[in-house]
Design a protein that fits this description.
Number of domains: 4
Structural class: alpha+beta
Shape: flat
CATH architecture of the largest domain: 2-Layer Sandwich
Largest sheet: 6 strands, antiparallel
Organism: Cohnella fermenti
Number of strands: 15
Strand content: 5-15%
InterPro entries: CdaR_GGDEF (IPR041522), Homeodomain-like_sf (IPR009057), HTH_AraC (IPR018060), Tscrpt_reg_AraC-type_HTH (IPR020449)
Distance between the termini: 103 Å
Pfam families: GGDEF_2, HTH_18
CATH superfamily of the largest domain: PAS domain
Protein name: Helix-turn-helix transcriptional regulator
CATH topology of the largest domain: Beta-Lactamase
Keywords: DNA-binding, Membrane, Transcription, Transcription regulation, Transmembrane, Transmembrane helix
Length: 740
């Protein structure tokens, strides 16, 4: 076979290698050129800004000198005041000469007085009619503000030969006045150009300066094109500075290519090409050796599945190995998958019951567990993860899988230390089913004790190391394979008592088999009383709620029956709340009903349920109490209610009596009761009397007739009928249940 793969390697690596090297060199050149240009632009901008700032500072110093002289020197003020003596004019001219000498940019200075048209400069004195700059001077008398003028031509005498291009600054004398006198300073444009000639030369950029009208002050190219990369305009002087990079800075590709570093890079490229060829040939030798052995084997086994395909060497090797590995792996995978599925199906059949397990099938499953096929007994345990809704909400899917894997490994390892042979599978997402198998009668007898110790060890390890709690239900021991489903049923029933017995513990089947069935109906009587007391705003509901949950604990009910009691209580609360105004119902729905729907699946034990009911009902009760107190008629209703509590035994107690007592209309009083307590006065009075009657029945031995009279009933039969209607049992039956 030709060395096709070697040639492909070379054709694959070399172009890519050369391309990347050239690309990196090109990127390096472009990047270097770009960085150089950016640095040049920054330098050019800084250079132009420096020139602008220096010139603006010079012009500002001239302006400040003008203002300072006008302010501090009385000579100029006297001139504005029409002083004209020869000695004064000489002093004034000398003052102007001294001002000219302060800055090399100043060409000339003169003052102009409008009163008599006198012009005094640093060189002479003349009238305004003789002055060539008369138009600018007269315009400056009424100027709104003082700014530097555009470049202009300045002459002293109208027919004079000497003229100068200047920019001028005018200041009124005195400052802030108009039409009296002005001081004019002329700055020579020649001096400004000399400044740019001296300081405006750069090896990086070409500078040009233009005035407000775009006329070139210094340089030409940038001022004409207007496309310079750096353009600055002075808000003070009005000059625009433009800077263009010189051609040499933009980079010359030929210079980069012919530089020593590029030549060094080309040499490295050649060395790299040689190295790629050398390494490719060296690494190809093992392929040649493998190919030779496969060809030899193929020639010796011409009838085998190995054939020489059309293509290169690696495809030939891949074809050969793929066929060999695929055949082996496919067989092993199918065998493992089938064994796993058969074992899982058998496991579910054992738990569900109803099927017949063959001896061969049982032996295969036991061999997968590493034991023999002898069966002497079995016991099923169910491990349930506590607070599973919080568990799946607090951990990601991957973390949940990790926790479950650790749980199965802990169960497996601890079972080995207790000499237990187990078969475990996940029955549901939160329940792990463990079948403990016994191969002898002795193992079966000791299995219960070992399972209990095993369960406690696993539970404590998970709690201490993973902060994960579980509840372990242990089923009964059976001696027949077909009865394993019965053991599973007893384990499930043990877990059903998790709500009553508590979570994070081990519950054995023997604990629930001997439980005495209590009278649940007795404690259901508290439900109506709790809901009614809550509705009318009585604090008695808290005590009644505690008695209800205490009774549920004493009965040790499974979760299904506990759920039934809670559904029954929620129904009564809902019915009572519908009797109240909408704002009370809204508080109930927000503070209790919505929270219950969110938490009902995560509350597993009676302690958690009682804490939830107590917390949410207390919050709801407080909000409803605050709402009642905010109403304007709350004080009146409270006084009426207190009066009823003190006089409930009065058989003549009625709305009419209360209306006369509190000077209220009976219709208004009835409406207040309905709004405040959600029921009519008669129903409220009956409830108060029944609560006191129940207290007397529970805590005393008075006859029924006497109790009837003490709670306001003249006829005992009326009392008995009312009591049975509201409580559900007769007073006598109630006393039998609640008295020891």
């Amino acid at each position: 076979m030709r060395k096709i793969w070697l040639h492909r390697l070379l054709l694959s690596y070399l172009p890519v290698f050369i391309l990347f090297v050239c690309l990196f060199m090109f990127i390096g050149i472009i990047q270097l050129n770009s960085l150089s240009r950016q640095d040049a632009v920054k330098s050019s901008r800084a250079f132009a800004e420096n020139l602008q700032n220096n010139l603006d500072m010079s012009l500002r110093s001239i302006e400040m000198m003008m203002i300072g002289t006008i302010t501090r020197n009385s000579t100029l003020t006297s001139f504005a005041g029409m002083e004209s003596s020869p000695e004064f004019i000489i002093d004034l001219s000398q003052l102007l000469q001294s001002m000219v000498s302060t800055n090399s940019l100043i060409d000339s200075i003169y003052v102009y007085r409008a009163g008599d048209g006198t012009i005094v400069s640093d060189q002479t004195k003349l009238s305004v009619d003789q002055f060539a700059d008369r138009a600018y001077a007269e315009a400056g008398l009424n100027a709104q503000s003082s700014v530097w003028s555009d470049p202009r031509t300045f002459r002293v005498f109208a027919g004079g030969e000497r003229k100068e291009t200047v920019v001028s600054m005018t200041q009124s004398i005195p400052l802030g006045s108009r039409g009296i006198a002005i001081l004019v300073v002329n700055v020579s444009m020649g001096g400004i150009r000399d400044y740019f000639d001296s300081f405006g030369q750069s090896g990086v950029s070409e500078l040009s300066v233009a005035d407000r009208n775009g006329e070139a002050v210094f340089g030409q190219s940038a001022a004409l094109t207007g496309k310079a990369p750096v353009s600055l305009t002075s808000a003070y002087s009005g000059l625009t500075y433009r800077s263009e990079l010189k051609t040499s800075v933009s980079g010359n590709l030929y210079e980069y290519i012919t530089s020593g570093w590029v030549m060094f890079g080309l040499l490295g490229l050649l060395i790299g090409i040689w190295w790629v060829v050398y390494i490719s040939r060296r690494n190809y030798k093992p392929i040649e050796s493998i190919l030779s052995r496969i060809q030899t084997y193929n020639e010796q086994h011409r009838n085998s599945f190995l054939r020489e395909p059309i293509g290169d060497e690696l495809r030939y090797i891949d074809y050969t190995l793929s066929n060999m590995i695929e055949a082996t792996q496919d067989y092993e995978h199918r065998d493992r998958e089938h064994a796993r599925l058969r074992r899982l199906r058998l496991f579910r059949e054992l738990l569900e019951g109803g099927g017949t397990v063959g001896e061969a099938e049982w032996s295969e499953a036991m061999s997968g567990l590493g034991g023999g096929g002898t069966f002497a007994g079995a016991a099923v345990s169910l491990i349930e993860i506590d607070q599973y809704s919080a568990f799946i909400g607090g951990y990601s899917h991957e973390d949940q899988g990790l926790f479950k894997y650790i749980l199965t490994k802990v169960v497996e390892e601890t079972a080995r230390t207790h000499s237990l042979r187990i078969w475990q599978e996940w029955a549901t997402n939160h329940r792990l089913c463990v079948i403990v198998l016994s191969e002898s009668e002795e193992e079966r007898v000791q299995a219960s004790r070992r399972i209990l110790a095993h369960a406690e060890e696993v539970r404590e390890w998970l709690q201490n190391h993973l902060k994960l709690t579980i509840t372990w239900g242990i089923g009964s021991s059976v001696t027949e394979v077909g009865d394993i489903s019965k053991s599973c049923e007893s384990a499930v029933r043990a877990l059903d008592y998790k709500s009553a017995l508590g979570s994070n513990r081990v519950i054995g089947h023997w604990e629930i088999e001997d439980l005495a069935s209590g009278d649940l109906f007795v404690y259901l009587q508290y439900v109506r009383t709790i809901a009614q007391a809550f509705r009318v705003g009585s604090e008695d509901w808290k005590e009644q709620l505690g008695l209800l949950f205490a009774g549920l604990r004493s009965l040790l009910l499974p979760r299904e029956e506990i759920d039934g009691v809670l559904i029954y209580m929620n129904y009564f609360f809902l019915r009572e709340m519908t009797e109240l105004p909408p704002e009370y119902q809204e508080i109930w729905n927000r503070e209790f009903r919505e929270r219950w729907e969110e938490r009902m699946d995560s509350l597993e034990t009676l302690d958690e349920l009682e804490a939830f009911y107590s917390d949410r009902l207390t919050a709801c009760f407080s909000r409803m109490k605050s709402l009642r107190e905010e109403r304007g008629n709350h004080a009146a209703v409270r006084r009426v209610r207190e009066y009823i509590e003190r006089n409930f035994h009065n058989p003549d107690l009625s709305l009419t009596l209360l209306g006369e007592k509190f000077q209220m209309n009976t219709s208004s009083l009835s409406t207040l009761f309905k709004e405040e307590f959600g029921e009519k006065f008669v129903a409220y009075l009956c409830q108060v009397r029944m609560e006191h009657a129940k207290d007397m029945l529970r805590n005393g031995s008075l006859p029924i007739n006497e109790i009837a009279g003490r709670v306001g009933y003249q006829h005992p039969m009326s009392f008995i009928r009312t009591f049975k209607k509201m409580v559900g049992v007769t007073p006598g039956d109630y006393r039998k249940v609640h008295q020891p």
